Structure formats: C-alpha cells, structure tokens
Amino acid sequence: MEFVKPQPTGKGPEDWFNGDVWFDVIHAGQEPSRLRANMVRFAPGARTAWHHHAVGQTLHVVAGTALIGTRDGTVYAAQPGETVTCPPGEEHWHGATEDRFMQHLALWDGTAPDDDRPETTWLGHVTDEQYGAPRTRSH
Fold first, then answer.
1. Cα dihedral angle (30, 33, 39, 42), rounded to 10 degrees?
2. How many Cα atoms occupy the beta-carbon half-sphere of 33 within 13 Å?
C-alpha cells in the first residue's frame, strides 16, 4: 500500500479551456494501470474546448450543474451525484453554468502501450452560441 503525495493544483491551459478551470490530479496510472482521475473545478461560464478520448471518459458531478455538449447541438445538464459517460471518440465539451461554479471528477483510461493514439485529442473552442444552446435533462 502507498499513500501518494498530492501534486499541486494546476490551472487549465487556455488552449483547452474557456474561462478559469483548476484541476487536481488524483491518479495518473502507472503501468499496468492506465486509469486517470482528476478533480476539476470550473468558474461560472468556464468550459472545456471540444475534445474526445480514445478510450472514452466518465464524469461524476460533485457540485453545481455540469453542462455536457455534443456535436449534434444537445447540451445536457447534470446534477450533483449524477454520472455521465462519453464513449470512445465522441466529440464533446463540459463546463459550468453562467452563474455557478461546477466541480466534477473526470475519469478516463490512457491508451495501451501499443496504441499510438493520444488518450485525449483537443479540438477548437466552444463558441458562445454552442455554449448557450438550450439545455435538456432528458437522457
């Protein structure tokens, strides 16, 4: 058993986020584990850029309302305690509402050593129009 020394909180880079986003790396798996886990905090209005994960991603909402957008224009609103999975290769974004902070646990797997795909592929920024699309609770 090992207690892992925590890394300092990191600020999300501007290439990957609109607005202020901070994250704590909880686990960055060492082989044979490929598990990644970050606790991510979004300021009101902050959001990721469009991106996708080679092996998918799971988001567990801890506080606030998480907005999760898909390429078909749907923006889901997830509440604390809800868990959302994004399948491998699905382009999506996630962030906070305009008026509240949001915190989620982001979980994903790194790619296998013989897989040359990046575990996360970052794309362009989410526009204000995409971010402001009507929100849905239907699953």
1. 90
2. 9
